[in-house]
Write the structure tokens for this entry.
Amino acid sequence: MTDYRITTLKTAALFAAVFLWLAPANAADIEAGRRKAEPCFACHGPTGNSTDPSIPSIAGQPAQFISTQLYFFREGNRKNAQMSALAANLKNADLNDLAVFFSAQKAAPPKDLAPEKVEAGKRLSQQFNCVACHGAALLGQQHIPRLAGQHTEYLRVQLRGFQAGTRFDMDGNMTSAARALPAAEIDALAEYLASLGAP
Ligand code: HEC
Ligand code: HEC
């Protein structure tokens, strides 16, 4: 009980720190974001649609999700050799501008199609209620990411990471959501999610 309260307090402090400066997007912020996004294009693609299955697409992700993750990379909560180095020098205004720019980009149609696995994945996403947080069409909301159309390989690695405790999880929700999933179900979910289109 005590542990739970401490976690909640820490989470509340994190949220206050992350979301304080998030203002509604305007065209000038998006344009500023485009200029600042130049170093990101090599890996995430010029419109935030990566072609490398190990690198997430960030086009059309909720802006709040992008700025939060950049904040976590910068502060060292979430760790990745490539991203941690890049985020280290970003200012709060940069996080916001980059977030609104990539959020305003259109997600590419899904390429990772495995029709024979899709039915099983759909059933599992209903059974485990992924839609409760990630949204009815799994497009994400606020600080919660879009899963629809993300690369299969990236989704699989992140789900295993939550399960193993190696991917930072701001409120513990994903670690509990992934805890009980056998490897075969992680594979089926990843293939199903990757096959979904995002508008
Ligand atoms: C050298 C390649 C590289 C560059 C350049 C790069 N990234 Fe990344 N990015 C990655 C990788 C790899 C990951 C996945 C990290 C992981 O597995 O935890 C990632 C993850 C992310 C995530 C988390 C997305 C998610 O779905 O969890 C965001 C947001 C992000 N990058 C934004 C940016 C921005 C903004 C820039 C430019 C300032 C940038 N990246 C530059 C490789 C790169
Ligand atoms: C109680 C809310 C909740 C439920 C239920 C939930 N998620 Fe999540 N999920 C989150 C949050 C919040 C994050 C961001 C966590 C962070 O980075 O700290 C997340 C992140 C993720 C990520 C990382 C994606 C990325 O781009 O980095 C994947 C993959 C994921 N969830 C898959 C699932 C699947 C599959 C299910 C159902 C089995 C599920 N989630 C159920 C809240 C939830």
